[in-house]
Amino acid sequence: MFADTPSPPPATGGRAQQVLAHVFGYSAFRGEQQAIVEHVAAGSDALVLMPTGGGKSLCYQIPALLREGTAIVVSPLIALMQDQVSALVEAGVRAAFLNSSQDADTARAVERAAYVGELDLLYVAPERLMTPRFLDQLDHLRDTGRLALFAIDEAHCVSQWGHDFRPEYLQLSILPERYPAIPRIALTATADRQTREEIARRLNLTHARRFISSFDRPNIRYTIVDKDDPRRQLLAFIREECPGQAGIVYCLSRRKVEETAAWLCEHGVNALPYHAGMTQELRAGHQTRFLREDGLVMVATIAFGMGIDKPDVRFVAHLDLPRSIEGYYQETGRAGRDGLAAQAWMAWGAQDVVQQRRMIDESEASEEFKRLARNRLEVLVGLVEATTCRRQHLLAYFGEDSAPCGNCDNCLSPPQTWDATEAARKALSCVYRTGQRYGAGHLIDVLRGELTDKVVERGHQDITTFGIGSELDEKRWRTVFRQLVARELVAVDHERYNALRLTDAARPLLRGETGFHLRLERERSRSRSRRRAATPMDIPGGIPTTLFDRLRAWRAATAKERNVPAYVVFQDATLREIAIARPRSQGELAGISGIGDRKREAYGDAILEIVATTG
User: Fold this and answer.
1) What is the mean pLDDT of the chain?
2) Is the separation of the CB atoms in 445 and 466 below 8 Å?
3) pLDDT mean over 348-377
4) Ranges for the Helicase ATP-binding domain (predicted)?
5) Whether 359 and 393 share a structural domain
6) pLDDT at position 494, please?
7) For the residues 301-315, what does the mean pLDDT come to?
8) Is 150 inside any structural domain?
9) pLDDT confidence of 294, banded at 50, 70, 90?
10) Neighbour count for residue 584 (Cβ, 10 Å)
């Protein structure tokens, strides 16, 4: 099953529990893991929705070791394959991958190993799996009884509603026709009900048992701020909250990615750009550096992220509004995969909403697609405007109820609100009285009674709305107009220099039938912004940082020697547990989460020596 791994003693948890403990070093399954493992190991199909960091990989890796033969894992990205295979090999599992990064001799060696039954798991891209040559190999494995299962990772790639759509995934629907007796498990970190149904339909998994785990990531803190010099806001966030930590910064355009990465470097942040306009070689090089170096910040478009298996990403920041809550959840979920405290930070403005709507309207997609895209964007706008718990809003989108989390910006510092009903009516009246031909700047001048050249030239000092809003300053009026746009009570006319015009949705407010309340933004003190709520994975006070630092230094040297990312050797969570427990024997080391038999044999003596010689 796996090379040179001693046979575990009988355990009440059965064979799955033995593999979990002796190969992967964990004492207990989490959530639905055990039910999924037993279901698939018994030969049944499954569709699994589990948040990033929830342990999806174990849901097919353990059944692969329990079933006879080789498991075929369909994975969309080279980097993901390589890292997962490296981690499995470190744990003593016979795993390999086939992809375009290999030369012909290496690929043939892997194919021979699979052909003769020397592999437990083989990772392939969907493009390779569907080639006649590879299908012939699968036929051989099936005919010899050595085809264990198919695992389809990142299954949302089959959905044309998501930005990770990969047309090659559509071809995977032939697997149950060609190999009807072989169980399949499709896995994704996020999918709303519509995407879920599309995955099941397109992969012929409509009759598969569905396992939907909680989407809650309690270790992630969600913070959303209004844009006010967003680059400097981002820099302040990184310096104050995550100094020297690995993170991802998402931007909407390639140009903004390049400019933001360069600007961060100029201000002392080790940052790299990543977008689809770069050469494949440069993208691969930057991704490799991000995975293997500590404290690197990747500034990227959404082209970067799927398959990023780096567990110690401490923050994900957005300088532009994502396209949907689903996209936001998926992108922020790349932070804190190790379960330790992490941050999801975003700066947003009404112009982001306008730009997203314009992109939707100008796309060549069907009207149905556009309608759904607009709806998803509106739900996201509801999240960023929320005055109550962010996590509650986020989980509600996935059909999950929750109590206030106590660990988002709104919970930690509840925003004040003000009744902007009268101000909103004045703004809407001003839009109408000026002929629906002007942008927010001119309208604010009219409302505040400013006799600018443009106001006098248009004669707007003589209309009824001139000067009726002098009680609010320019910044407050811009907030009002921003929210009127975000809530679609007014629309932006791009053909007329971003002039504002009323929509039908404005009528109830103008008639006095509805109210209009807004967040009252306030400056937060440095001490408040730096306050961090405890999470279940926090390290108790008094952790011996010298020991932790020595363990990290040893891990870095070991990883470099083995040419693998540091977290493939051990994750930070494991090193922190070692630093707290200070094991003195191989037996005590075996009780540390994340240390299986193979790793304990390979690294146990070195770890125990470091612990023994560190005060």
Assistant:
1) 87
2) no
3) 83
4) 37-209
5) yes
6) 66
7) 81
8) yes
9) confident
10) 11
Any domain includes 456: yes
User: Which of the listed ranges 9-13, 211-215, 362-366, 485-489 does the model predict with the highest average pLDDT?
Assistant: 211-215
pLDDT at 407: 93
249, 252, 255, 258: CA torsion to nearest 10: 10
Instruction: Give the residue among 3, 111, 95, 99 at the shortest CA–CA distance from 57.
Output: 95
pLDDT one-digit tens code per residue, 563-599: 888 889 999 889 999 999 999 999 999 999 999 999 9
Region of 367 (left: φ > 0; alpha: ψ -120 to 50; beta: rest) is alpha
Number of domains in the chain: 4
Does residue 33 share a domain with residue 18? Answer: yes
Burial of 524 (0-12, 13-18, 19+ CB in 10 A): middle
pLDDT category of residue 111 using cuts at 50, 70 and 90: very high
Helices (H), 116-217: 126-129, 132-143, 175-178, 193-202
Q: Looking at the domain assignment, is residue 272 inside a domain? A: yes
Helix (H) or strand (E) holding 519: strand 517-520
Task: Give pTM, 2 decimals.
Answer: 0.75
Q: Which amino acid is at 97?
A: F
Q: Which residues pair with 225 in a beta bridge?
A: 347
Instruction: State the DSSP string of 381-445.
Output: HHHHH-SS-HHHHHHHHTT------S-SHHHHSPPEEEE-HHHHHHHHHHHHHTTS---HHHHHH
What is the CATH classification number for the domain harbouring 560? 1.10.150.80
Q: ∠ at Cα 183 (180, 184), nearest 5°?
A: 105
Percent of the chain with pLDDT over 70: 92
| H helices present in 95-192, as ranges | 104-115, 126-129, 132-143, 175-178
Does a structural domain hold residue 534? no
Cβ contact 428:490 at 8 Å:
yes
List C-alpha distances in Å: 90 to 102, 134, 565: 20, 27, 11
Cα–Cα distances in angstroms (integers) from residue 594 to residues 90, 249, 432, 553, in the given order = 12, 29, 64, 18
Region 19-32 average pLDDT: 92
Looking only at Cα atoms, what is the longest distance across the chain?
90
Q: How far apart are CA 31 and CA 24, in angstroms?
A: 17
Alpha-carbon torsion (550, 556, 560, 561), positive or negative: positive
The residue count of the chain comes to: 615
**Torsion region of 7: left, alpha or beta (phi above 0 gives left; psi -120 to 50 gives alpha):** beta
431: tokens are 């839009």
| Whole-number pLDDT of residue 1 | 41
Give the neighbor-by-neighbor strand order of the sheet with 121-124.
95-98, 121-124, 70-74, 147-152, 184-188, 46-49, 209-212
Domain span at residue 557?
545-612
